[in-house]
Amino acid sequence: MVGAALLLGALAASPAAAQTPLDQARELYNSARFDEAIDSAAKLRSVPGAMDAAGLIIGRARLERYRQSADRADLVAAREALRDVRPGLLSERDRLEYLIGLGESLYLEESYGAAAELFETVFEPSYRAGPAAFNRLFDWWATALDRQAQSGLVEDRDSLYERIRVAGQQALSRDAGSGPAAYWVVVAYRALGDHVRAWETAIAGWVRAPLTDDMGAALRADLDRLVLQALIPERARQMASNDRDRERAASSLRTAWETVKREWSPK
Predict the structure, then answer these.
(1) Is 91 left (phi over 0), alpha (psi -120 to 50) or beta?
(2) Phi, psi (5° rounding) for residue 247?
(3) In tens digits, what is the pLDDT along the chain, a chain of 267 residues?
(4) Where are the alpha helices (DSSP H) in 109-156?
(5) Closest by Cα among 193, 213, 204 to 168
(6) CA 161/CA 99 separation, integer angstroms
(7) Across the chain, how many H-helices and E-strands are there?
(8) What's the start-to-end Cα distance of the chain, in Å?
(9) Which of 2, 81, 1 is CA-nearest to residue 45?
(10) Of 19, 37, 50, 128, which one has the fewest beta carbons inside 10 Å?
(11) Distance separating alpha carbons of residues 145 and 131, to the nearest angstrom
(12) What's the Cα-to-Cα distance from 126 to each of 184, 228, 265, rounded to whole Å?
């Protein structure tokens, strides 16, 4: 999930037959035509009733452009555009996108803890917007906490992974097809040192992966990489005290994992 799903939800747009200039700018954003979206929205910055939504589009488009080019000028311009938005004049859906934009801006500035706090405040409204929107947001949130935990700037890493574990299990109880939740629960158990539970949740995630939007393709690829590259070597070290026994344990675990994959993958 990390790196593969760091895209936020598209801004809401009206049906084509009823499109206004603001809707057209949103549509350009939705189509990842960020330069055109910025130019289109900039023309609306002085239009009453549209200027704040236009600023939101500019801010979000600048963030996406920064993620493509790493040009810091875009990150600064995005922050300034979002800072000047008057959220009280936005629609309910645009306020959700505004908060996500603030969180993304903080994340890209490497203020991971603050970003996670913002993302978490919009879990419920993002879920109401649809499972896909929630899943993207959950992945941003969990990635932010993971980055914070790895930054070396926190004393209690376990508390961050415990938050991921609890929220991931809650998300799965609500929607068993949440790929990001399934992945991050495994990551959390591994980080907390419970390799047995991480192993079992990885198997469970593989088995129910077809419930995800892409029939499990992304989730299974991420789980396979996590299990083979991290979980099996670490669990083998726990199971044995010398190199020969560790290799034997790792071989046994790899065989067990390949059996799960073979038995629970389409023919």
Answers:
(1) beta
(2) -65, -35
(3) 533 323 334 555 555 556 799 999 999 998 999 999 999 999 999 999 999 999 999 999 999 999 999 999 999 999 999 999 999 999 998 999 999 999 999 999 999 999 999 999 999 999 988 899 899 999 999 999 999 999 988 999 999 999 999 999 999 999 999 999 999 999 999 999 999 999 999 999 999 999 999 999 999 999 999 999 999 999 999 999 999 999 999 999 999 999 999 999 987
(4) 112-121, 123-128, 131-150
(5) 204
(6) 23
(7) 14, 0
(8) 25
(9) 81
(10) 128
(11) 21
(12) 18, 33, 31
Structure tokens at 224: 């396979």
Cβ neighbours for 72, distance < 8 A, ≥ 6 positions apart: 66
Residues 6+ positions from 128 with CB-CB distance below 8 Å:
none
Nearest to 172 by CA among 135, 226, 137, 142: 135
Encoded tokens for 238: 């726990």
Which two structure tokens, joined as six digits, stand for 149? 């935990």
DSSP 227: I
What's the residue count for the chain?
A: 267
pTM higher than 0.85: yes
